[in-house]
Write a structure and sequence with these properties.
With 220 residues, this protein is of the alpha+beta class. It is built from 6 helices and 12 strands. It has one domain. The structure holds zinc ion (ZN).
Length: 220
């Protein structure tokens, strides 16, 4: 795990996962910091668990935005650990720590292993259409999980052999194996996330899987 936010009391706790922060990085981070923040105890516990997955991330200060939107207990997630490599993430904004932890487990145990078994190649990157966005669920007055950084829209999976398996096109138009892979990946999301929506839900989800920690197993 790469830990580059300085001056955190949590440093000692998180150094247990084996990261060593170079002095140069520390100085650079201190110079860039405008405020020192200390995650709340419950947030620290999640950060420690996320660190234990060997994810690369930077904890972010809590922020409240207008219209009831916020990024609380959030991280900027740049890489996840698979069984034997790092997975990169494209186009991802801030996500809450619980969302990042669930996503890390899904990427490793749900997506990467399915890619190896079905498609014969490990996963190297997950392409997303972002995470935090201050908006409502379409055509409702209800805030989306994106408005609290508790949701990610996943658009494609990149494999080590160079293949790109997109949700759009792949769900109903890819090879039989790719279609099966996407369905297995979607089903494993349903087991892990509170809400998982895909192309079968509605036309708005034709090009991505919406995965979110909120919810009680809503799977479409
Ligand atoms: Zn979404």
């Amino acid at each position: 795990m790469r830990w580059i936010v300085p001056l955190l009391p949590a440093m000692a706790l998180l150094s247990a996962c084996g990261s060593v922060v170079p002095e140069a990085t520390k100085r650079q981070s201190v110079a860039r910091s405008t405020a020192v923040f200390s995650p709340r105890p419950e947030a620290r516990q999640c950060l420690a668990q996320l660190g234990a997955t060997q994810a690369n991330f930077i904890p972010m200060p809590d922020r409240y935005f207008e219209r009831g939107c916020s990024t609380l207990n959030s991280v900027r997630l740049s890489g996840l650990r698979s069984d034997d490599a790092m997975l990169s993430l494209a186009n991802l904004g801030p996500v809450t720590c619980p969302m990042a932890s669930t996503f890390a487990a899904w990427a490793r145990y749900g997506v990467d292993r399915a890619a190896r078994q079905l498609l014969g190649s490990p996963l190297v990157q997950i392409e997303t259409m972002g995470s935090y966005s201050c908006r409502n669920v379409a055509r409702t007055a209800r805030r989306s999980g994106h408005a609290s950084a508790n949701a990610i829209d996943v658009s494609a999976f990149i494999l080590a052999d160079g293949r790109r398996v997109p949700v759009l096109g792949g769900w109903s138009g890819g090879s039989a194996t790719e279609r099966k892979f996407l369905r297995i990946v979607h089903a494993s999301a349903c087991k892990r996330f509170g809400t998982s929506l895909g192309p079968d839900y509605n036309a708005a989800h034709a090009n991505h899987f919406h995965v979110e920690v909120n919810g009680d197993g809503y799977c479409r």
